[in-house]
Amino acid sequence: MQTNHLANKAKLALGTVQFGMPYGIMNGATEAVPEAEVAAILALAWRRGVDMLDTAVGYGRADEIVAAVCPADISFACVTKMPPLGDEDAEVRAAEIVKAQAKLRVSAFYAVLLHRADDLLGPKGGAVARALEELRRCGVCERTGVSVYDPATLNAVLDLASDRKSVV
C-alpha cells in the first residue's frame, strides 16, 4: 500500500460561508451566524489547533465579519476562492481577490483556488492561469489551484499543472 507523503502535513480548515450569508442546516439557511458566535467559534478553533480558514469572495460578508471579530492576537492562514468567471475577465476576478486580501488583512493567502476548473480548462484558461500566476508572483498568495469534483477533471487539471506549488 502506498502512503500519502502529505499525510503528516494535513491541515484542518474552518469554513466561513455561514459567517457571511445564510447557509447550512443548523440555521435553516435563513440567517448567517451572529457575529458574537463567529468570534467565539474563531477563538475556540484557534485554541483547538485550527489554523486555517476557508473563505471566498462569494461568501457574502464573511471576509468582513471575520476581520471585524477575530481577536488581534490570532492569525489564521486563509484559503480563498476566485468566483466563476461568467462574463468577467480573469483580471477582474483577480482584483476581487486583492480586495479580499485587504478586507481580511492577511499578508498573503495560503492559496487561491478557482471555484470552477472549467475556467482554467476552457477558452479563457490561458488568461486565468496568467492571472493566478500574477497573484502568486505579487505575493497575494503562496499557492494556486482549483476545486475539482470528478476524476476526469482532476486528470485534466494535473495535465496542466506546471509546478508543485500548485494545489488541487
Summarize the structure.
The protein has helices at 17-20, 35-47, 62-69, 90-104, 118-121, 125-137, 151-160; strands at 13-15, 52-54, 77-82, 109-114, 141-146. It is an alpha/beta fold and 168 residues long. It has a single domain (8-160), classed as NADP-dependent oxidoreductase domain (TIM Barrel).
- Taking all Cα atoms into account, the compactness measure Rg is 16 Å
Low-confidence stretches: 1-8
Secondary structure tally: strands: 5
CATH topology: TIM Barrel
Helix content: 25-40%
Order of helices and strands: EHHEHEHEHHEH
Distance between the termini: 22 Å
> Which class do the helix and strand fractions yield?
alpha/beta
Largest sheet: 5 strands, parallel
Return the CATH architecture: Alpha-Beta Barrel
Strand content range: 5-15%
**Strand order of the biggest β-sheet:** 1-2-3-4-5
Mean pLDDT level: 85
Morphology: globular
Helix count, per DSSP?
Answer: 7
Question: Characteristics of this structure?
Answer:
disordered N terminus, alpha/beta, TIM Barrel, 168 residues, 5 strands, globular, single chain
Give an overview of the whole structure.
This protein is an alpha/beta fold. The chain has a single domain (8-160), classed as TIM Barrel. 40% of the residues lie in helices and 14% in strands. The chain is built from 7 helices and 5 strands; from the N terminus they run E-H-H-E-H-E-H-E-H-H-E-H. It has helices at residues 17-20, 35-47, 62-69, 90-104, 118-121, 125-137, 151-160; strands spanning 13-15, 52-54, 77-82, 109-114, 141-146. A 5-stranded parallel β-sheet has the order 1-2-3-4-5, covered by helices on one side. Helix 4 links the parallel strand 3 and strand 4 (109-114). Helix 4 (90-104) packs parallel to helix 6. The protein is globular and about 45 Å long.
